[in-house]
Design a protein that fits this description.
By secondary structure, this protein is mostly helical. The protein has twelve helices and three strands; from the N terminus they run ααααααααβββαααα. Strand 2 and strand 3 form a beta hairpin. Helix 6 packs across helix 7, helix 8 crosses helix 10 and helix 9 packs antiparallel against helix 10.
Length: about 300
């Protein structure tokens, strides 16, 4: 006796057909978006590789964003995905903005403006394929990746770089004199006196600490998101990344200044970069210490039980 295979119920067949169409359309749209933004992706990776000491951390940001999604995978998968066609609006607007920046007037040909188009497009794609409920859990990883995985242009950085150069020069001048190194300061130039011989040390733009600040903000946001649940703890840890980056950068300049007393080549070239990377280790430990302090500022009290046995 042969059994006749049952045909799937009409609703199951419709859902399977709908899923197939969604995957096909999603694949085509993903390939299209990758093709449109390919030059942007390549330029960012190339820039991060060429200037690893300044922007190498941008290559790790997408992995951290993926870990955020993995942390919330159970909550994300518990929400049924729903195609939201209104997501096509930011997709079209984001691509149009990117193309306008790419082919438009010189004032718009800025990779951070192009990055804004990519950000809008990614948010639109997420809304389109996963729906509004999933978007409430995915918006933060998306925003984190879009903000911290792209380099900041020199034109934008100058608004913060010059004040930070001045802070670094003043702080280094104070610390050097405190440890007994006779130092004068004229603007952003430190003059270290070695047995009556002046040794100038210029606090250039690369020594301002702006790039270290960006790395610390990215690290602070990641540690705050994974380590705390209270908003004030998260916000405090992120804000503490600013003075931490400044202090570490001052200590880096002081280290280079002291080493230049023995050999002026220590304050330039590859060794200059090496010292900057070396100081990241104690800086990270310092940041972990700040996180430990913030965590232990709040002591969780266990729930008390009432005489009837119900927790209060």
């Amino acid at each position: 006796m042969t059994s006749i295979p049952r045909e799937p119920p009409p609703m199951v067949a419709v859902e399977a057909l709908r899923l197939r169409g969604l995957l096909l359309g999603g694949g085509i749209l993903t390939v299209l978006v990758a093709w449109v933004f390919w030059e942007f992706f390549v330029s960012q990776v190339r820039f991060a590789i060429r200037q690893q000491a300044d922007w190498g951390h941008t290559l790790v940001i997408p992995l951290i964003g993926g870990y955020f999604v993995y942390m919330n995978r159970h909550r994300i998968l518990s929400v049924p995905f729903k195609t939201t066609w209104s997501g096509l609006i930011p997709v079209v607007l984001g691509i149009a903005w990117y193309v306008a920046c790419w082919l438009g007037p010189p004032a718009l040909r800025h990779h951070n403006l192009q990055g804004a188009g990519l950000t809008l497009t990614l948010f639109g794609l997420t809304l389109l394929f996963f729906g509004m409920r999933a978007m409430t859990l995915l918006w933060f990883p998306l925003l984190y990746v879009c903000v911290f995985s792209q380099t900041i242009s020199a034109k934008l950085m100058t608004y913060v770089t010059f004040p930070m150069q001045d802070v670094t020069a003043r702080g280094s001048w104070v610390v050097l004199n405190l440890i007994g190194v006779d130092t004068d300061r004229t603007g952003n130039i430190l003059t270290i006196w070695d047995n009556g011989v002046p040794r100038p040390l210029n606090i250039a733009e690369a020594c301002s600490g702006m790039r270290m600040l960006m790395a610390f903000l990215a690290l602070g946001v990641a540690m705050a998101y994974t380590g705390f649940t209270r908003f004030w703890q998260r916000a405090t840890l992120v804000l503490l990344g600013i003075p931490t980056a400044i202090v570490v950068n001052v200590l880096r300049v002081v280290t280079l200044a002291v080493l230049s007393l023995y050999d002026t080549d220590f304050a330039a070239g590859d060794f200059h970069t090496f010292v900057g990377l070396l100081w990241l280790v104690p800086a990270f430990l310092m940041y972990l210490g700040l996180q430990w302090i913030l965590r232990h500022l709040v002591i969780e009290q266990p729930a008390r039980e009432t005489p009837g046995g119900d927790p209060s």
